[in-house]
Amino acid sequence: MQEKDIFNLLTDEGFCNYCLKTNADDVEYWENWLEEHPSERENIESQKNLIILLANETAAQVTQSEYQKLQRRIQLSKKNNRKIFPLIMRWAVAASLIISLSFGYYFYHKAQNNRQIATTISNKTAPGSTKAILILANGQKIELSAAANGTIATQSNTAIRKTNDGRIIYDGDSKSLLYNTTITPRGGKFDLTLADGTKVTLDAASSIKYPVSFTGKERKVEITGQVYFEVAHNAAKPFRVLTRGQTIEVLGTHFNINAYDDEPTIKTTLLEGKVSVNYLGINALLKPGEQASVKSGVSDIRVKAVDTELVIAWKNGLFRFSKTGLRSVMRQISRWYDMEIIYPETLKNTDLFEGSTPRSANVQSILRKLEVTGHVKFKVDGNKIIILNK
After folding, report:
1. Which terminus of the chain is less hemmed in, N or C, by CB atoms within 10 Å?
2. What pLDDT sits at residue 313?
């Protein structure tokens, strides 16, 4: 790289983005460029350090006296390190001249814009959070994350309360058969307690339809997506969950159902107690630690032992993978971060991923870990994750 080319880097917006790490595409470009031109790494690092120095100084709105101190420091460094760092000192002096011609003004506003860009990128790739919408029997919609704590609605003799920790609880014994629905959007998660004391946790892009009060001889709910249950015991009223043509019947137990439409199978996993899974007239009785898998339209239920901690990792705030395929991993990431996944026309790798990471992490850190352990690369473009074969 010629000296004049290096000089041009000081006013190259893409290079500034790379130095200040405020644009993922520019960072990726320069990292790739350095891999292809390793002999230029020392020169580039020198300019990177200078850019960071200038940005920090001007972002703090350098006063004239502070600027003069900066010039003296550069001159002193030049005198003391003439033989050791001739390149960076030469360009430090050049940069000081640029600052005197309002280059500092450019960097100040550049730093301001970069912070705004970084905030925007962070917001777009932030992890999911506690949020859901409650649809009452009369069609009224309540955004639960925005609702104040305390009683948020009353139906017949039942009060719907939002607790200090954000959970929704039904108190009362309504004689009317009214059905409510709680829905979590993509990037959402929510807890609620039904009228019988059953605790429910909904993962992102999930829903549960349930009666305000359980009347009659059974307790019946309908779900979509992924839901974890801790069913209150009542031998006189069996608890039934309906999803995609499948019925799970329990008396009192802890279990997880994964029934997303974009998943190839419906998976019911038992942690405590006993459940019966019915699908197309076939029944399977699960023991703790077992999982029943059902494929849509296939009259068969497969039962196997599984690691239950792996299954409910989502409820405990984790992504956990154990020989998990890329598409399965990306479906989880897509729902939690509310991002679209773009696959290459030909996905060459068949990687199986291992490990765990908090779901509170931003999506870039998750993708970096996947890049290290697999044969893929990722590019984040707005709300899209583009998968690239290495």
Report:
1. C
2. 97
Rounded CA separation 357/317 (Å): 9
Residue pair 207/181 in contact by the 8 Å Cβ criterion: yes
Which pLDDT band holds residue 153 (cuts at 50, 70, 90)? very high
Checking if the pLDDT of 226 tops 60, the result is yes
CATH 3.55.50.30 positions along the chain are 318-389
Instruction: Name the nearest CA neighbour of 360 among 134, 116, 126.
Output: 126
Average pLDDT over residues 138-157: 91
Where are the CATH 2.60.120.1440 domain residues in the chain?
129-309
Most confident of 62-66, 81-85, 380-384: 380-384
Interatomic CA distance for residues 171 and 124, integer angstroms: 38
Fold of 318-389: Phage tail protein beta-alpha-beta fold (3.55.50)
Instruction: Tell me what the mean pLDDT of segment 99-113 comes to.
Output: 46
pTM: 0.69
CA distance between the termini of the chain: 27
